[in-house]
Amino acid sequence: MQEKEYRILVINPGSTSTKIGVFDNEKDILEKTIRHDADKINSFENIIDQYEFRKEMILETLDEEGINISKLSAVCGRGGLLRPIEGGTYAVNEAMLEDLRIGFSGQHASNLGGIIAFEIASGLNIPSFIVDPVVVDELEPLARISGFSLIERKSIFHALNQKAVARRVAKQIGKRYEELNLIVTHMGGGITVGVHKNGKVIDVNNGLTGDGPFSPERAGTVPAGDLIDLCFSGEYYRDEIMKKLVGQGGLVGYLGTNDAVQVEKMIADGDQKAKHIYDAMAYQIAKEIGSASAVLDGKVDAIILTGGLAYGKDFVAEISRKINWIADVIIHPGENELQALAEGALRVLQGEEEVKMYPGSVKDKTIV
Ligand SMILES: Nc1ncnc2c1ncn2[C@@H]1O[C@H](COP(=O)(O)OP(=O)(O)O)[C@@H](O)[C@H]1O
Ligand SMILES: CCCC(=O)OP(=O)(O)O
């Protein structure tokens, strides 16, 4: 019997771009990256205010590409800053929408993934899902200790791509993901370095407002005492400081752009400051990978470098030079997020996996 074909629209809002794809079962018939200028993105007060802008761009792009949305079977979005949950495919429900709208665990473009998926799907009377959201939490107890008893470390990272790329690499080297110790470094608008031990991400930097290397648009770890002094200097409102850390931090703060391609052009044109800052970003990433290798007692099967920045040959070479004594370095430029979203939705549509229901209710703040 012929397998039923599902046409799935997938939506991946990132901090510097919105990526969309249309899949007939596993086969991609469209993949498109819409890049957003840092000034445009920073002109919105809150993430939720970008809803119309991003949704319209998606619908316009689908129209231009000749995709008739009435033929879709499901819509799947990248999951955002919900409550910490296990990995898997979740149906978008009311509790999830409320948490995405308020940004239960913080503000990030991925909060729009589930919301836009739901809006498009409900107009067509088809289901909407999210897969492996950025709050997937598999941290070991030791990794949760921050050193400051009032604050616990959190797992906020590129869970979808880290897991998808780790699985792909495991296949390439002929092993199961669950058998390997991997360090997966996603380098996009945010940068996260995940310690994957036997199929679980047991430690990772919180790539949003937490810690780790600075990135195209985020500050990463900053000296805590100096930050507190700045917060109480009377010069800034809370939201201004937050924006300086996320959105206007990292490359944007130093060089005025979140676009690494532009930074590479500045360097090629002899801009010494751009070179210094770009080198510092590579240095901080290498340092984070070094500390991740200590979490695995040095027993690392491979280090994977992925995300948009992994297209930068000199950048990747500089990181690799510093860390290739630990283990083989595998470069996987870009990401597998669109494919991973489509496959997650498909597993549920084809009945291979049970859809998960998002727990929780915003009103009483309890998990049900
Ligand atoms: N060919 C390339 N060389 C170097 N950097 C690149 C290249 N293509 C994209 N990038 C950079 O990768 C970053 C975006 O990565 P991406 O994974 O797409 O981010 P996000 O999904 O967070 O928006 C940007 O700084 C972009 O300029
Ligand atoms: C919130 C962690 C995921 C992240 O940083 O994604 P982007 O790089 O797409 O902003």
Description:
It is a single chain. The protein is an alpha/beta fold and 368 residues long. The protein has two domains: 7-137 and 337-357, Nucleotidyltransferase, domain 5; 159-333, ATPase, nucleotide binding domain (Nucleotidyltransferase, domain 5, 2-Layer Sandwich), CATH 3.30.420. It has helices at residues 38-42, 51-64, 94-102, 111-124, 141-144, 159-172, 224-231, 238-245, 250-255, 260-268, 272-295, 313-323, 337-349; strands at 7-13, 17-24, 27-35, 74-78, 89-91, 128-131, 181-187, 191-197, 200-204, 302-307, 329-333, 356-357. A hairpin with a 3-residue loop joins strand 7 and strand 8. The radius of gyration is 20 Å and the shape is globular. The ligand CCCC(=O)OP(=O)(O)O binds next to loops.
